[in-house]
Amino acid sequence: MASSSSSSSTQVKKITLKAADGKHFEVEEPVAMEMETVKSFFVGNEDAMKDMVVPLLNVSSEHMPAILDFYRNHSEFRKRTPPPPAEEVKAFNEAFLENKSDEQLMEMIMAANFLNTKELLNFLTEAAANRIKNKSVEYVRAFFGIENDFTPEEEARIRAENEWAFDGLDED
Amino acid sequence: MTIDRLSNLPDAIIHEILSLLPIREAVKTCVLSKTWKYHWTHTHTLNLHLDKNFAYRNPEYLENFVLHVLRRRHPLCNLNRILLRYDHDYFIWNESKQLMNNLFDYALSQELQEFEADYVCDLPSSFFKCQTLKTLKLGLKYSFGMHTLLSKTIEFASLKTLKLDHANISDKNIHISSDQSLFSNFLNLENLELHDCCLDWRFKTFIINLPRLVNLIVSCFRCNVDIFEISTPRLKSFEFSDRYNSSRPPAVLNMDNCPILEHVKLVTCFNKWKEEHLSHRMSTAKRLSHAKSLTMSLEFAEPWAIITFTNAFDGEIKLEEQHKKQNYMLMIRQLKLLDINLLNESKVKNILEIIDNSEDIIDKPEEIEFDFERFITHGEYHPNIGFVYDIVLPKLLKYETLKALTMKGPYSFRILSSLSLGFKSLTTLKLSRASIESRNRKKKNILRSCDLFFDCFNLERLELSEFRIENLETLNIKAPRLLHLTISIYHWTCWGDYEHYHHQRDDQGANDRKIVIISAPRLKFFEFELSISVDTMQLRLENCSVLEEVNIRYALPLVVWRERYNWNQRYILDMMFTNDQSGSFNQHAPLLALKFSKVIMYAIIRF
C-alpha cells in the first residue's frame, strides 16, 4: 500500500511511517533519518526499499505531526549559519510544549524513547523535570500516575530514614 | 480509566528525569511509592542546588547532606556530572574544603565527565586528576587566579568543553614568554568560552593554538594584549567581544590559520567615536571575509551608537546602526537600502563617516534608498531634519556609479536649485516629500527658474511625489533620455503670491508666473498631479514628440477649495475639458497650457 506514493517523488525522497494506530505519514528522508529507529530500519536491512512502510509501534498518530515538526525545525536550526538566536529556539520550544498536558508529555517521551532521538528525548525529559520541580509529593505522584502503596506508617518510616533530605523542606 | 503511566515509563527515563532535578528534589521522590524508593539512587548527576534550604546552615550540614547522598547512591551507577549552583551570595561554600575533598575523592572513582560550578574558589588537588572529565564550566570569584589551569602540569586529556566565567587567567609560577599559547595542555578541547575573564597583564600576545577547537567565544575580555593570534585549523564558530578606551588602539586579530571558519561575530566597544576605530575594524573584517557569515558590531559610548555589519555568505553586506534607547535605526540593507532614522547632528556625522569609510565594503552601490519617514516622532518632525537632506544628498554624490536613488521623508528636505547632483549614471530617481527652493529670496527681480536635475542626463525614470516648490517661478526639466515622469506638486509658492492673492490681480504677467517646462524627447509616460490651489500655472511639454500617455489629475480636496476661494474663483484645467474629460490622451502637441477658467466647475466634482 505504500508503493502508490513513491512513484511521484523525484525531488525529495519520502519515507512512509506508520503510527501505532495505523495512520500513515509521508516524511522527507532527512527528517525521517533524524530518528535512529527509522535509520536503523534501513541500515540493518540493505535490501529494504526506501518506499517501504516503517512501522512505529509505540508512537500514536496524535503526536506524529508535532514530533516531525520538532525534527524539521531543529535540524534547520543546526544547519543555519550564523546559528539562530537563542530566543528563536526558545520560542519554538515553548510553543511546542504549550497546551501539552502532562499525559501528552509522557506519551511523547515514550515516543521519543522509542524513536531513539536524543535531542527530542533530552528536551522532553527536561520539560518533565521542570514540571515537577519544587512540587509536593502528591503533585509528583499525580504527574507520574503513581499509586501510593505505602501504609502511613511505612511512609513515615521512609521519611524518617531520609530525614536529612526532608529537613527544612517546604511541602507545597 | 486512567493509564498507568508508571508502568509505561522505562526506569532509564525516570532516572534521566530525576538526574535533571536538584538532588534534594530527587531524593524526595523516595516516598512516592515502593518502586520509587530507590529510583533516585540511580541518578547520574549530583545537582547540588544551594537554595534557601541550605542558607544559614553551617558547613557541616552541607557536608553531611552530601555524604548521605554519596553513601546511598547505587554502587553500579556512575556519577557523571556534578553541578554546583548557588542562590545566595552569603553562602559559605568556599569554606567547606572538606566537602570538596569528599566530593572529588568520590568522583575520581566514578568516571566523572562533567563538572559545573557557579562559584568556586579553590579546587582540591584530587580534582585535577580527573582524566575522564569532558566538560568543565567554572564561575570564579574574580580575584581568584586560574593559575592552576594554566600550569603545564595539568592535563585534562579528555576535556572537550571549557567555560570560564570571571576567571583571572594568570600564572604566578611560570615566566610569561611572548609565545605562550593558552590552554595548550588541553589538546582535545573543542569548545572554549571565556566570559568576563581577565588575562594577566604581562601577556602582550594572546595565543590560542588548539588543533581540535571548533567553537571559541571570548566575551568582555579584559587584557593588555596587542595581538590575538588564533591558530585553530578546525575552528568553525568564533565570537569575540572586547572594549577599549580611546587611548589604546584595538588589538590586531590574526586568524589566518582558520581556514574553515563559518560564523564570526565581533563586537568591539569604544568609549569614544574615532574614525580610526571603524577603519581598523573594517580591515579586520576584510581579513575574515573567508568566513561564511561575518557580523561585526562596533559600539560607541560617546556619541552613543552601535554599528553592525553583516557579511552573509553570498557576499551581501548589511550595515546596521541601531540606537537602542530611542529605537532609531540606520541600515543599509543588502547594499540596496539605506534607511536613516532619528538623527541629530553628531549622529548624522557618524553616518556620513560610515558612508565615507564604508567605501571598501560597499563597493559601488547601484541602488540606495533613504527612508526618513521615521523622522516624524510623535507627529512632529525632528528639529534637525532639514540639514540632513542638505548634507546627506551631496555626500552621496561620490557614488558615481549610482543607478537608482530613492529618498522619502518629510517636507523639510530641501534640494537647492543651485545644487548639482551629478549622478552621471543615475537612471532612476524617486523623491518623496522633497522640496526645491531658491535661496535668493531677497532679490526681487531675478527670474527664479531652476533647471532641475540638469546634470543627471541618463535619467530614465523620475518620480517626484508630494513635491514642494518654494520661491521659484519656472521649473525646467531637461532630460534627454527620460521615459517616465511623474510629478505631483503639493505646494508651490513664489515671490508675489501674497500680492496676487490680496489684490486679485488678473494681469497676464501673473498668469504666467508658475511654469513647468518639460523637455524630454524620449518621454513616453507623463503623469502630473496637482494637489494645491494654484490660481494659474502653465505646463509646457516641449520637444516631447513620442509621448504615449499623459495623465493629469487635479486632486485638490474640495474642503480646502471651499474654504479658501469663493465660487467666482474656481478654476479647472481647460485641458481636462478638451480631452474627453478623462485626462488621458495621445497627443503630439509640443505645448500644453494649463489655464484655469471659471467655466467648468462641474468637472471638479468628478474627482
UniProtKB/TrEMBL annotation, chain A:
GO terms for biological process: jasmonic acid mediated signaling pathway; protein ubiquitination; ubiquitin-dependent protein catabolic process. Residues 118-165 form the SKP1 component dimerisation domain. SMART domains: Skp1. It comes from the Eukaryota. The keyword ATP-binding does not apply. Gene3D superfamilies: Potassium Channel Kv1.1, Chain A. Residues 13-74 form the SKP1 component POZ domain. Keywords: Ubl conjugation pathway. It holds the Pfam family Skp1_POZ. Pathway: Protein modification; protein ubiquitination. Part of a SCF (SKP1-cullin-F-box) protein ligase complex. Belongs to the SKP1 family. Involved in ubiquitination and subsequent proteasomal degradation of target proteins. Together with CUL1, RBX1 and a F-box protein, it forms a SCF E3 ubiquitin ligase complex. The functional specificity of this complex depends on the type of F-box protein. In the SCF complex, it serves as an adapter that links the F-box protein to CUL1. This is SKP1-like protein. It comes from Dipteronia dyeriana.
TrEMBL record, chain B:
Residues 6-41 form the F-box domain. It comes from the Eukaryota. Residues 120-259 form the F-box/LRR-repeat protein 15/At3g58940/PEG3-like LRR domain. This is F-box domain-containing protein. It comes from Dipteronia dyeriana.
